[in-house]
Amino acid sequence: MDPFLSLLHSFSSGLLEPELASLKFLCREKIGKRKLESVQSGVELFTLLLEQQLITRDRLDFLEGLLRDIKREDLISQLKQFVEDGEVNAPADQPDVHERRLQKAAIEVICENVGKNWRMLVRKLGVSEVKIERGEDEC
């Protein structure tokens, strides 16, 4: 599952009707009136914003501004945490934050104890070349 879409779905679930109405009002200059009138949920609004590329994984300023305008500091905090955790550019099949920390710790132990032969060991463990290349950056 795509973490960015999950975040937007979570935001949508937490929106009250007056907040959705405010978001729609704030988007009037960016999205046509007819399209906005058909929006019944946050998911539908976020879908339009994604289609118009007003929000993307690496372009969150507009979304943050909308959330600030409706005074949803809790959602802004979640958005900032999402960015800090490195989820912004992560594809859906990437490990979560906890799993990445464990992987980083494992790579450090391997680098310290195996030395130059760490690549051969990691290949024998069945790790893909792409992940090995990423691991080089850690050593």
From TrEMBL:
SMART domains in the record: DED
Gene Ontology biological process terms, A to Z: regulation of apoptotic process; signal transduction
InterPro entries per the UniProt record, alphabetical: DEATH-like_dom_sf (IPR011029), Death_dom (IPR000488), DED_dom (IPR001875)
Domain DED, residue spans: 3-81
Pfam family, any one: DED
Domain Death span(s) in chain numbering: 103-139
Domain of life: Eukaryota
Transmembrane region(s): none
Protein name: FAS-associated death domain protein
Organism whose genome encodes this protein: Patagioenas fasciata monilis
Gene: FADD
